[in-house]
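[09:14] KT: can someone run the structure on this one? pasting the chain below
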Amino acid sequence: KEITNRCLGNWLDVAKKMFGLRRYVWKAETQENGNIHYHLVTDTYIHHKDLRRTWNKSLELLGYISAFEFKHRHRNAPTEQVKSIKNVRNVASYVACYMSKNRPFKCIGKLIESKGVRREILYGSDEYRAVNNWKELGKVVGSIIGGYSRPVNGRLWGCSRELSQIKPVKVGEDTHDFSVLRDFIERANLKRIDLDNACLFVGKVASEAKKHQDDIYQALEIVAGKTAIAAED
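[09:31] RB: done, structure tokens below
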């Protein structure tokens, strides 16, 4: 709670003033070693050097950079990792997986091999594009880490005020029998995955949804505001 409130909270205030940060979503989670870190997605461009400089200043509010300097003899701690958003579909998948998972994961990307060494590369990264000639061992979507993981104490995620004011789409089962959606799921031959509070349908959603989008919109009765349904293959 203290790290989120003091360090992340301070950095968000600084970023709003210095970089014009407006729309963002962040998620907190623990790493394999138990330390907390944050994932943040925004449409605001921030240079990685500016991000490191301001984030390190925020971390120093709790003395972390001084502790790093005592061990490594310099204060330029590599505390950030920036990825450019170049493929919206991959970013949407990345955010959805990190926001929905309730267990720790190693990565969301691809498992590749070079000179006998296996490495996990995140989609969209410069490193991923640079090694596209490596042997691909297969797609890795959140490989689960075994053993105990320390849970995050405090808020798990947050977003900007502008995003928090977006009203969700609500459809009650007492209003519809959802026959159109059930028919769509059957026609698209989607795979069903049951979660704790919902069920997820996976498959060629976008291509099939385009053929029946008018029926789907009518079934959901989306009549207020500028609301859109986004689906991906």
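[09:33] KT: thanks! The longest helix spans residues 2-18.
[09:34] RB: yep, looked fine to me
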